[in-house]
Amino acid sequence: MSIQVRHVTKTFGQYAALKDVNLDIPDGELVALLGPSGSGKTTLLRIIAGLEVPDANPETQILFHDQDVAARAVGDRRVGFVFQHYALFRHMSVFDNIAFGLRVRPRASRPSKGDIRARVHELLKLIQLENLGDRYPSELSGGQRQRVALARALAIEPKVLLLDEPFGALDAKVRQGLRRWLRDLHDKIHITSVLVTHDQEEALEVADRVVVMRQARIEQQGTPEEVFHHPASEFVMDFLGHVNLFHGRVDAGRAVFDGLAVDHAAGDAANGKAAKLLVRPHELELFREPNGNHSVKATVTRVHRAGPSVKVELNGPEGRELFVELTHERFAQAPVAAGDTAYVSPRATRVFVQDFSI
Amino acid sequence: MSNPTPTIPAAAATAASSSGGAPGRTAGPASRHARRDPWWVRATLITITLLFLGLFLALPLASVMAEALRKGVGAYFASFNDSAALSAIYLTLISAALSVPTNLVFGVAAAWAIAKFEFTGKSLLISLIDLPFAISPVISGLIFVLLFGLQGWMGPWLREHDIKIIFAVPGIVLATVFVTFPFVARELIPLMQEQGTDEEQAALVLGANGWQTFWHVTLPNIRWALLYGVILCNARAMGEFGAVSVVSGHIRGRTNTLPLHVEILYNEYNFVAAFATASLLAGLAILTLVAKSAVEWQVARRRKASAAENAAEH
Q1: In a domain, B82, yes or no
Q2: Range of A283's domain?
Q3: Quick check: A90 and B217 CB within 8 A?
Q4: pLDDT tens digits, A186-225
Q5: Residue B44: which H helix or E strand, with range?
Q6: Which residues contact A69 (CB under 8 A, 6 or more apart)?
Q7: Which chain B residues touch A81 with a CB distance below 8 Å?
Q8: Are residue B129 and residue B33 in the same domain, yes or no?
Q9: Do B51 and B176 have their domain in common?
Q10: What residues does A6 pair with on adjacent strands?
Q11: CA-nearest residue of chain B to A144?
Q12: Per residue in A79-118, pLDDT tens?
């Protein structure tokens, strides 16, 4: 079932959590709402669920499969919601937790006891906790609890699945396993899902599409490849991973940054304007000799060789820190040590001229 | 127990020998010794406490029983075999039976509203709930006399319709309700605030209506604290003297509760009956304490379980 959000604004007192947000989520996709805390992503999710009411505005619409559900109560929207802190019913067993949504239905639409039991067992199997139906939430690990919360949300056969930082309270290793499991699950049941996260790795790895939010607005949306490789702004690029930042200005159609010049598409119109160059650590090359007007001189301060790649920290012009990530093979061709002088040169660059970036 | 001085080097040695690990944990028994007070401090404190408890709690209780049984078990039981005494017991039970459920409903409703919703005037409501604790019970009684007495605001209207509140059972129930209404609410508010609204929201998303959410999610989570509040509320409802004394009028056999009956008997120099009746109230108090301890123990167990659960999360 597709979800469309039209002209949604939400203010809490003086504070604007969402400013005229529009979003289309196609049927069957897993979309990640990604952003720093306070960017409005959780508020947007809660408005889709019906747990929060958007500010009154005749243009505001929340469409599920082209039907406006804005006026419908949260219980009538048939959404599955997974909370960050699980929100399991602490006095109920795992079985009763999962069965809850079916048991509270009005008598006419309530499945029989046998049907409920069958459905719960099916879900317990899905979350790989078949033998733990009699346990209480306090007897489960964090990862198990979150899987129970997911099964409970799926029990009512929701039309959309909404997950609010579902792995936020778990440690890194459990998180990774659960992330992959969620992706597999989504591939199996193809339910339209929205996942809120502030972890860019999680969003890029799990989602079909990533919606980057910033200060109550949507900054960019696209596939993980699009937002990672073609960030629309400095903010998106910075948020999606480590970046090296160079300050410079545009001159005769080229952007010049302390010692290196980069072609810039904006042409002469942008002449004289301040520009920023952003380069990811793995897109920088390291040389022992200067490389024409395409490199920056820097001093190596630290070399980390433990791990899948070699990470080199350098001290660049004006004392700015630079990070370079190289493969072990590449590093072996021109090894450096702390204290050496090296020349850093970008392979791929993204220039943001001041006016365009914000 | 030993003087703390020699234990300090021992603790230091233990910590030093395990410098690789966590010294605070491996220090074990030595550090526990170091944290203990010297024996004479503990002995003095325990003695003072026991003396105080004996003098001010155990002794009076014992004297009540002694006085009540002074003329034998027969006289003790005979003092209950009297229409005035029976009617006082009956009235006390009635007023508790009416005020406790009233305050149970009110307390749950108020705690629910305060803990789960944001609204203006919330702090005013919290202060209002505390009001009966803050003012003297005699004044609580006077408020009702001023409202419903013959010379009171509603007096003429009540007389016209032949409704008696002051110096009658309704007044006693009203005063008891007023004095005991903070117990349940105050017990529930902190617990419900701590529990937050996540579980209720989860229930609503799953399609439960408000009543189902309350009955299946909220109520089970607060049941022990609720029982605790009800026990305290009941104890106070049966034992209340001041407020009830003002509104009752002390009409023997009609508007006397147990505490008032004790006073009347005592003033009539009927000491055996007075102390026998008092022993009934004292027995009730002890019963309440036992029930309270049992519930407290349950609550602590639940808290510990939920704390362990929270610890496991992080």
Answers
A1: yes
A2: 244-357
A3: no
A4: 988 889 999 999 888 899 999 999 999 999 999 999 999 9
A5: helix B39-53
A6: A50, A62, A63, A76, A77
A7: 201-202, 205
A8: no
A9: no
A10: A61
A11: B313
A12: 999 998 899 999 899 999 999 999 999 999 899 999 999 9
